[in-house]
Recover the amino acids of this structure.
């Protein structure tokens, strides 16, 4: 009896966490999925009404803006962060004596809250006293940089702040990758007369394909979950010009009292995340078994 | 993953067939110019935040964004800490700073401890189904929290924890378990299982082995996990704004309220001082233990995920 109990200890230790995950992740996803199929407004109603909330969602111009913004923000944020991160990593990889200091400088924004980042950039980019006023003060009277208050450009202001925050992280990923490439190959290349840039383009970068993938996954995940940055930088405005799915969901859930819409938009967000993450997890798992 | 803080073999410019020594020097200068410009780009917002927070409003209106303060004043810092308005209350950030401390410390400790215990079981006491449970937990790391926001708000209400700090701690612990378990599991899986077998032969039980053998070995991964969790929880905004109410808000929510407070004139210097105060704890952790911070960031992505 005691021996049996002893064998059960590991299971009993894991059980509370497992039950918690089962309820608070999977149970809650099921609840949200159910609510997304009802006519719930301020309070949840459990009577099913088909995909009416999804029809409303996809007919909503605000949601359309939010999805367009996610696409613009996601593509630019991921693309520029990757390029910048890769470039910084390669530049830092040239035996720089002050590498440690520079690395610290490039990466510190990642330690900050997106609310802090948004607050700082909101001030820097404000037209009245920020960059615009500064450049005008230098004598360029017609210089304009009012992206944060321009509905057409505000989403690009969010991209700038996002890239500032996350590109150092990509640099760290790529630098770790560059350092893990087999040193012997790199040493042999110059002996064979292969120029430096060819070593990167033909040997090092192709061997870092998994890191490109990792960086992409992490950045995509950050982009889809971006909520605080938009809240702090533009508040979703002007109007709802910089709404993202995350801010749309929050508005529906907590200020509009439309939890049916909130639930359906959350489910779409999860769909987008899984469309990106599941193939990745699957390939990682398969790589493990091979 | 590779710890790149150690010198590793890299290309040396000397071994490359260089066109000439002159070209070599020019390239080197170009390299340093580029690196320096980027350093300026990353430092500029911090510089602007600090200088703005030390200026008077009058100086902000008349001077340039990037100018050094003429008359350094700490008035904005005092206001940000104990006088700025977050809506109708004007107590500054101080009460919310302590809210965040009261929230982060227990949440970090509990979630890290649970992660250690879970990781120990999954890596060393594998039973049928343990890997499935691990995959289920891992999956939980990737969900957008929006999908659990509504039911969690209701659940906290049912538990009598709505709008309280214990409620926020609960939410952070639950949704932190996935990552902490992942960190510890990936660390413990590298410890040979013979260790457990030998300890069992000597009569040590499950808990004894954990306390006397595994925990003492775990210092590096404990540091990584604690830093990761602290950064996540201190910087969190979504849970804070969804599950708190006036009086129990964490610092990120209070900062956002100060900045967007519509009463009175816009005090940019106070906003910047408040932003620095809100960012200081995690920044400090990063400066003091940057190596571990980076390990945490990369652990979840560079192949470390499923090893």
């Amino acid at each position: 009896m005691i021996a049996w109990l002893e064998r059960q200890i590991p299971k009993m230790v894991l059980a509370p966490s497992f039950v918690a995950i089962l309820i608070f992740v999977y149970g809650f996803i099921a609840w949200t999925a159910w609510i997304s199929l009802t006519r719930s407004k301020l309070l949840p109603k459990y009577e099913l009404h088909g995909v009416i909330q999804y029809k409303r969602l996809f007919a909503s111009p605000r949601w359309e803006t939010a999805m367009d913004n996610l696409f613009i923000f996601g593509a630019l944020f991921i693309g520029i962060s990757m390029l910048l991160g890769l470039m910084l990593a390669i530049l830092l990889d040239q035996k720089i004596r002050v590498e440690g200091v520079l690395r610290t400088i490039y990466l510190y924004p990642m330690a900050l809250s997106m609310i802090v980042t948004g607050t700082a950039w909101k001030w820097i980019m404000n037209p009245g006293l920020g960059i615009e006023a500064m450049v005008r003060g230098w004598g360029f009277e017609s210089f304009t940089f009012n992206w944060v208050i321009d509905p057409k450009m505000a989403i690009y202001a969010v991209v700038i702040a996002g890239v500032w925050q996350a590109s150092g992280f990509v640099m760290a990923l790529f630098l770790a990758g560059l350092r893990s490439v087999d040193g012997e190959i790199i040493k042999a290349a110059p002996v064979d007369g292969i120029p430096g840039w060819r070593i990167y383009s033909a040997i090092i970068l192709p061997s870092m394909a998994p890191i490109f993938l990792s960086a992409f996954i992490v950045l995509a995940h950050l982009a889809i979950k971006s909520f605080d940055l938009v809240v702090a930088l533009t508040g979703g405005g002007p109007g709802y010009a910089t709404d993202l799915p995350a801010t749309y969901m929050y508005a529906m859930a907590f200020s509009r009292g439309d939890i049916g819409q909130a639930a359906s938009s959350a489910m779409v967000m999860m769909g987008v995340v899984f469309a990106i993450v599941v193939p990745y997890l699957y390939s990682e798992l398969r790589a493990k078994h091979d | 993953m590779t710890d790149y803080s150690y010198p590793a073999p890299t290309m040396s410019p000397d071994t490359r067939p260089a066109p000439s020594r002159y070209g070599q020097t020019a390239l080197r200068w170009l390299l340093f110019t580029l690196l320096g410009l980027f350093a300026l780009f990353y430092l500029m917002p911090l510089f602007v935040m600090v200088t703005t927070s030390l200026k008077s409003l009058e100086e902000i209106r008349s001077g340039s964004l990037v100018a050094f303060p003429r008359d350094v004043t700490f008035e904005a810092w005092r206001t940000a800490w104990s006088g700025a308005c977050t809506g109708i209350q004007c107590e500054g950030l101080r009460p919310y700073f302590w809210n965040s401390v009261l929230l982060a410390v227990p949440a970090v400790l509990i979630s890290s401890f649970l992660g250690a215990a879970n990781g120990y079981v999954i890596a060393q006491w594998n039973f049928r189904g343990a890997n499935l449970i691990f995959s289920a937990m891992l999956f939980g790391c990737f969900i957008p929290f929006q999908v659990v926001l509504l039911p969690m708000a209701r659940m906290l209400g049912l538990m009598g924890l709505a709008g309280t700090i214990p409620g926020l701690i609960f939410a952070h612990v639950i949704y932190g378990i996935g990552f902490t378990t992942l960190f510890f599991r990936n660390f413990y899986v590298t410890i040979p299982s013979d260790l457990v077998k030998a300890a069992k032969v000597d009569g040590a039980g499950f808990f004894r082995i954990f306390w006397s053998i595994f925990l003492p070995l775990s210092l590096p991964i404990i540091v990584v996990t604690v830093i990761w969790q602290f950064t996540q929880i201190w910087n969190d905004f979504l849970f804070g704004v969804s599950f708190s109410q006036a009086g129990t808000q964490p610092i990120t929510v209070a900062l956002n309220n100060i900045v967007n407070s519509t009463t009175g004139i816009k005090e940019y210097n106070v906003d910047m001082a408040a932003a620095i105060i809100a960012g200081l704890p995690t920044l400090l952790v990063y400066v003091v233990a940057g190596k571990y911070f980076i390990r945490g960031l990369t652990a979840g992505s560079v192949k470390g995920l499923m090893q």
User: Anything to note?
Assistant: Chain B has two domains: 19-73, 95-299. Residues 1-16, 302-307 of chain B have pLDDT under 50 and may be disordered.
